[in-house]
Amino acid sequence: MIKAENLTKVYRTDEIETTALNRLNLEVKEGDFVAIMGPSGCGKSTLLNIMGLLDNPTGGSYQFLGEETVGYSERDRSRMRKGNIGFIFQSFNLIDELTVLENAELPLQYLGLKASESKIKVEKALDKMGMTPRKNHFPQQLSGGQQQRAAIARAVVTDPKLILADEPTGNLDSGHGKEVMELLKELNDQGTTIVMVTHSPIDAEYADRIIHLKDGMIVEGEPVYQTGS
Ligand code: ADP
Ligand code: ADP
């Protein structure tokens, strides 16, 4: 599903040059659950942004679903993202002015689905996340755990092949964090590939494979390849 070779990202600002990713090699297969760990500034967000086709690397190769994406325009990357990649964030990133249902429906609107089709998909996603009773609530009326479940409903509503999660339990207490991790595990068991950045060793245990990053390089966890847990 994902093949990164010699992946490099150099940020250039005025006088400073930062190598955020340094010739990194990584393969993610369909059905994998990968956790990415490492100290602040080691390149985790940069890697997740490139994997999510939100940003381009400055060197190397990044193949997603068999397509080389390096050099793609924003328009091409957006086309690849749609329906293929779902995002989950630490701070949920729900739109406060929209209800749970309206938030979860957004990716389908971008895909241009018919209202009747959209309705079926969004109700299925909300149901899966146990959010049907809360579908007409606004984010501020929900607990953190409920907001993250709404955000996961939004991430899965298009049945994406890949879910990218950036510290999905970072703003949750341990009980709600466990609930969210169990939902992610369930999605993975049903075949969705998951790549998650986390600081939590407890969360990382849900993954099949842990990749440790340091200074933009993988320090362990590769090339040992495991499937299943
Ligand atoms: P992490 O997510 O592991 O904390 P990041 O990927 O955010 O790491 O950052 C990796 C390195 O790249 C850091 O040194 C950071 O300061 C730098 N960096 C990240 N984003 C930018 C940017 N937009 N411009 C310049 N430097 C950046
Ligand atoms: P939790 O203990 O699950 O984190 P909270 O203490 O935040 O939950 O809230 C308890 C319940 O009250 C939750 O089910 C939540 O949906 C509901 N709730 C919290 N804040 C509001 C609000 N501003 N309006 C309506 N319902 C709310």
From TrEMBL:
<keyword id="KW-0547">Nucleotide-binding</keyword>
<dbReference type="GO" id="GO:0022857">
    <property type="term" value="F:transmembrane transporter activity"/>
</dbReference>
<dbReference type="GO" id="GO:0005524">
    <property type="term" value="F:ATP binding"/>
</dbReference>
<keyword id="KW-0067">ATP-binding</keyword>
<comment type="similarity">
    <text>Belongs to the ABC transporter superfamily. Macrolide exporter (TC 3.A.1.122) family.</text>
</comment>
<dbReference type="InterPro" id="IPR003439">
    <property type="entry name" value="ABC_transporter-like_ATP-bd"/>
</dbReference>
<dbReference type="InterPro" id="IPR017911">
    <property type="entry name" value="MacB-like_ATP-bd"/>
</dbReference>
<dbReference type="GO" id="GO:0016887">
    <property type="term" value="F:ATP hydrolysis activity"/>
</dbReference>
<dbReference type="GO" id="GO:0098796">
    <property type="term" value="C:membrane protein complex"/>
</dbReference>
<protein>
    <submittedName>
        <fullName>Phosphonate ABC transporter ATP-binding protein</fullName>
    </submittedName>
</protein>
<dbReference type="InterPro" id="IPR003593">
    <property type="entry name" value="AAA+_ATPase"/>
</dbReference>
<keyword id="KW-0813">Transport</keyword>
<dbReference type="InterPro" id="IPR027417">
    <property type="entry name" value="P-loop_NTPase"/>
</dbReference>
<feature type="domain" description="ABC transporter">
    <location>
        <begin position="2"/>
        <end position="228"/>
    </location>
</feature>
<dbReference type="GO" id="GO:0005886">
    <property type="term" value="C:plasma membrane"/>
</dbReference>
<dbReference type="InterPro" id="IPR017871">
    <property type="entry name" value="ABC_transporter-like_CS"/>
</dbReference>
<dbReference type="Pfam" id="PF00005">
    <property type="entry name" value="ABC_tran"/>
</dbReference>
<dbReference type="InterPro" id="IPR015854">
    <property type="entry name" value="ABC_transpr_LolD-like"/>
</dbReference>
